[in-house]
Amino acid sequence: MEECCDTYLDKELGVSYEQRRQFISTYYDVSQELIVLFKQQKLPKEIEIELCKPLYKITSDTFTPLTYIKREFYRKYIDLFTRLFTKLESPDHDQVYSLMIALDLNTHNVGKAMSIELLHRLEDFSTQTERQTYLYRQLIRVEEVPVTSPISYHPEFPSLKTYLISYIRQRIALSHQTYEIEQINTKKIPGSDMGIVNITKSKVVKRKINLTIPELALFARLFTEIKVVSVKENKQQYFKFLSQIYMSKDDKDISENSVKNAFYSSSKDTLASVERLLIRMLNTIQKFKDSKMIS
Q1: Rounded CA gap, 258 and 213, in Å?
Q2: Beta carbons within 10 angstroms of residue 97's beta carbon
Q3: Across 230-254, average pLDDT
Q4: Closest CA to 61 of 31, 104, 34, 35
Q5: So which domain of life are we looking at (predicted)?
């Protein structure tokens, strides 16, 4: 009967006593199992407590009241975490947190505990650039989590996803400000004397750039990969063009072959250094946004 009338039901109404008892009977054992599994994960205590609260409501029958929409939430909650623990005996914290975001378990304690854990993780990095790289990765991870819950756990609060995105962006902005201050207090960066350098006995005016040949080649590769530059069958001309107009920070003369070789093969160090430069570019864009430099 309920299935036939589901479209017309007011989901804010409480279920009947018989439906309530049937729901508890169905999910009592699996709720107890999940409580045990949560306690084995070595999660922050506040997270563990909040994860277990919905399950304790089932095992102790303390719903006030159990509405149709809340029952749907508990079913999805149990289903998602049962699938996770069936697939992975010991999932990492971020995998657990992704499900909490998807379920919008938006309690004050959850948001606070996740924020504190993020700060602890940032302490593992020695530079602001490393912190920013990690923060941007976390931001992307959170933004990509789809919220699938029928309701927020606390509809009166902001969603957990919205809170975390806002918090991570605040940390990125703070890290960027700290980086700027550190740069002011350090010596002049090698290679900052970039400028136009005239090559003797040549009509070509090369520009010195604060990049190594592998870094230059990787940027060139990125431009072709995202179709900013279209080279098609003329890659050799592209390599020649780069070698003729630039001087790297290490070499005055760049050969076509050196650009070509680096274009097709990048070391881990080169990938990491270019990634740091891209993070700085993203920070600069954020500064433009903050200063309203938008036409």
Answers
A1: 7
A2: 24
A3: 83
A4: 31
A5: Bacteria
Residue 271's Cβ-side half-sphere holds a number of Cα atoms within 13 Å equal to: 5
Q: Per-residue pLDDT averaged across 14-40, rounded?
A: 93
β-partners of residue 196 are 207
Whole-angstrom distance between the N-terminal and C-terminal Cα of the chain? 58
User: Phi, psi (5° rounding) for residue 78?
Assistant: -65, -40
DSSP H stretches of helix in the chain: 2-5, 17-39, 45-60, 68-87, 93-103, 108-122, 128-143, 160-184, 213-225, 235-245, 256-264, 268-290
Q: What are phi and psi of 68, to 5 degrees?
A: -60, -40
Q: Which amino acid is at 289?
A: K
Q: Out of 133, 149, 183, pick the residue that ends a domain.
A: 183
Q: Which of 51-55, 204-208, 228-232, 242-246 has the highest mean pLDDT?
A: 51-55
Boundary (domain end) residue, out of 125, 155, 183: 183
Does 132 share its domain with 266? no
Tokens (6 digits) for 86 = 């069936």
- Asked if residue 135 lies in contact with residue 165, where contact means CB atoms within 8 angstroms, the answer is no
Instruction: Round to whole Å and give the CA distance between 245 and 253.
Output: 10
Residue 62, domain extent: 2-183
Angstrom CA distances, 77 to 12, 96, 101, 103, stand at 18, 12, 11, 7
Contact yes or no for 195/246 (Cβ under 8 A):
no
- What tens digit of pLDDT does each residue of 69-127 get? 899 999 999 999 999 999 998 999 999 999 999 999 999 999 999 999 999 999 998 88
Do the domain assignments include residue 189? Answer: no
Query: Nearest CA to 50 among 141, 120, 112?
Result: 112
Q: Which residues are CB-neighbours of 160 under 8 A, at least 6 positions away?
A: 100, 101, 104, 105, 106, 110, 111
